[in-house]
## 1
Amino acid sequence: MPPLVEIDDLHVRFGTSHAVRGVSLSLDDGEVLGFVGESGSGKSATALAIPGLLAPTASLTGRILWRGSGSCAMNLLEQPRATLRSLRGREIAMIFQEPMTALNPVMTIGRQVAECVHAHVPSCTRKEAKRRAIEALEAVAIPEPAHRLNDYPHQFSGGQRQRILIAMALIHRPRLLIADEPTTALDVTIQAQILELLKQLQREHDLAMLFISHDLAVVGRIAGRVAVMKAGEIVERGSVLDVLTRPRHEYTKNLLAAVPTLETDRECPLATLAGR
């Protein structure tokens, strides 16, 4: 069976800056791929290119083949904006890394989740949109969601806000979920809860997921395969077990060595990542 999404020789430029250099990767239905690298390595630029969310100043070449619900692949880089808008949220959804700012602070949670319904089902009644919003919030374990629809984002904790963003992303049961460092702004305990929630929802809905992180340990808890990115290029890829236990590239080894553990010798400095 062909992959759900296939990126072939993708290049992304912002003026004279070459952010992504010939990236090629694929993702099958129901598969979780970890995408790892330091800040500025090109992870998010690659991911944002899939649903067409890069700034208009970006110049893209290559192919991003999407099979989605149809049997024939379409190159997303050649599709009109209207086609991409119809895919976003319905077949390709995204969770952004900062739950504190991703929600509109002056709109109630119920209205924001209901907007996700109306965006792709304009004929949906307000009553039906409200029902679907409550179901979506229940699915991500928001307590008493029917009584919290009129609450605002500041009335929820950081972990709850991230759960709300996950509910909004999954309300239309998309085929692909792009999670752009969804646990970065959360403490370790809440981070573990969000990872378990994502794993549970991924299994329940047979989601394909592109999980972006700078932390190989986090990726190791959720992904089956991993691709390591440096300076706009993929420098290593393989199963999570192979990459975590038998890294081949020096950059991957330094990424692992840069994270302190209980076994780290406190007398020795942590590894550093050389500049470009």
Note: The chain has a mean pLDDT of 90.
## 2
Amino acid sequence: MVEQTMFFAGSPVDRSSNERRDPQWVQNALEAEDSCFLPVCNFEFPVSNGEQSFLLWGQSSWLELATGSPEPILLGKFNGRAHFAFDVGELESPLNAFGLSDVGAFYGLRKLAALLSPEEAAIAAHARSILEWHTRYPFCPGCGNRSIQRNGGSSRHCPACQTDHFPRIDPVAIVLVTKDDKCLLGRSGRFGRNLYSALAGFIETGESIEEGARREIKEESGIEVGKVTYVASQPWPFPYSLMIGCFGEALTETIVLDEEELADARWFSKEHVRQALAGDAKDLAVPGKLAIARHLIETWAAG
């Protein structure tokens, strides 16, 4: 059985993990006439106008238009062509610079989710996370010297202390806690008044997924959790998290709210959740299909 692919996953690009270790192979790909280059401006991507939009790729000559010294990141190969993403820097009016003003616009990933196919959204998510990592960590955390890209941008290398550094991924346990015929949902202060979701938190050093899930639920809601069951995962490129979706079986029911983390948390019956999924509950809204929380809630409600 093949697991359901979450949004921002399922990229059709072959990351060329073996080939990218060869600097000459990467250089040949950069110089190939049929290679594709995706300009990124403030972590926004160029897409075509229309109800079903698509990413707008260009040729290597686009690199010459970027300010500074753009360092293209190899995303991999697709349909026999190498695909790169690059930061345009402080380029003014990138649409005009790349000749795209009449055919498209630059949008962030949340906006793109409603415009692109899931496959292209996954490509953009990959590009955003890796570009932001390079932007945030240009220096070696060991000795403080500037590091350089290696392996097509899939890692960085410090020439001073000879240390290799790899992209950061932040694991997050997101857990739908259930007990009998009800589930626990929480509302962040950033959410709308009636928007509730599964509870989530970062897994800390030295924790397993199950331990992190239990700790976060206990800290945020006071609920003790026993069995934790993995369901699915989702790359979440804001900037580079991995959402690890789980079900958790509650051992207690009394909620003790951490008001610094949540504005509210409640138990909701399965029937109430089903009404919310259908858009018929005036006092409860759940996350959209973009989020793995929606998949957890739908899976539980369908049981």
Note: DSSP finds seven helices and 14 strands in the chain.
## 3
Amino acid sequence: MRHFFMKRRDFIKTGGAALIGTAALYQTGCVQMADKSTGLSGMLTHFGVTRNDLNKVIAVALEKGGDYADLYFEHTLDNGVGLQDGEVNRASSDIQYGVGIRVVSGDQTGYAYVENVTVNDMLNAARTASRIASGSAKTPPVKVDEPTFRNHYPVVDSWEEVSVKAKMPYLQKLNDRIFELDPRVTKVSASILDTTSYILYYNSEGRLCHDYRPMAMAYGTCIMQDGDRLENNSSSRASRRDFGFLTDGMIEEIAQEAVKNTAILFEAVKPRGGEMPVVMAAGSSGILLHEAIGHSFEADFNRKNISIFSDKLNEKICDESINVVDDGTVDGDRGSINFDDEGVESQKTYIVKDGVLNSYLHDRISARHYGVAPTGNGRRESFKYMPIPRMRVTYMENGGYSEADIIASVKHGVYVDRFSNGQVNIGAGDFTFFVKNGYLIENGKLTQPIKDVNVIGNGPKALADITMVGNNLKIEPGAWTCGKDGQGMPVGQGLPSVLVKQLTVGGE
């Protein structure tokens, strides 16, 4: 048993969203499996708690006068299986089990967690968290709110029932197909990861809800050799899906993309650097929207006056044709959730509407500060962490141009397709992104492939400099994970093709 106490700090650090690679090896924990029913009564049974137990813990959490308290129960099972050198040769598993207890008093937050859910241990953790508060004891809720939510990731074939043996043929097919597609392939690495989470949430307002969250990812990377040159690239697919996620069609898509994205690198060059128009390809270029702009809309950065958008709510910040959305309701998407980790129903939130900054992304604390309803963006990596404002699936809605029209409008510039990583300064909005794949644009046409260049700019200025928005929105299907304040979070992102009239391209 361990108890941890944290006082909320002014976090400002974010890490770039990154593609998950091969499976890590984990130490295996052990908890007793319980009822797999996803109904509320089944979930209470799963964690071995009663409604009376929940109220006891909430009462103790509020005994020193906190304004608000909540309980976040989690049981997560992670499994991974990997292939290298032509054979399935590694597997991993991990179990997380426990409850996090939060107490809010004014602007302060007390947080404790325990890695089991016996009543006495929960009461001790609640007392630890309650020390943030000072005042008269509050009473637990009398009326319980048990909302029902639309399910954005129904489960038919649970990952819990799928053996390693059942996953192995898909890895072998991916390996074999990558080798078949190009004789220059010398090495393949592939992995399949799946996660199942049981979630139970209760707060001092009486909200009691539960969720059964699946997650899956398949990943393939290849190394090619042409003469003395070696190149590598990869492709992935990720979704909140059950075992039906794995199909021969998806394996074919990953193989084709991994080989295509690697082969083109042998033809690619570094372009001459400088300031120029940049066309962002649909789909994976959404990483720039997420990192360079999206984080600046998270309400904790604005509440603390860190973000460059802190004083721009309800102001015009870009062209009227631009609508930017953060959406937790995209069925099956990696970043979607039925409700956030504070029991708030997921929703589609317009951050930018017709070029105007319409809303920040709120958890309960920032929503109370601004006097608005939370937007369902209170998320946490696990029960060991406090929830903070985080993105879900962030994308720009379609505009009125075809991608061909956008490219044809550029005399000299670059078309950027795949990014590998980047850095962003939330306060100033400055960013640098590394471009893995793209093309030169010359006289309105894509010509020479390019690679290994940086795109440098300022997020708010880049948003304001978007002059054309395509009609080809694509939600990127890859396995993106966003890092912020030491917490990794599954997210989705997307973009139609867009033209930014001027960015700095670092090349030769």
Note: The CA atoms of residues 221 and 234 lie 4 Å apart.
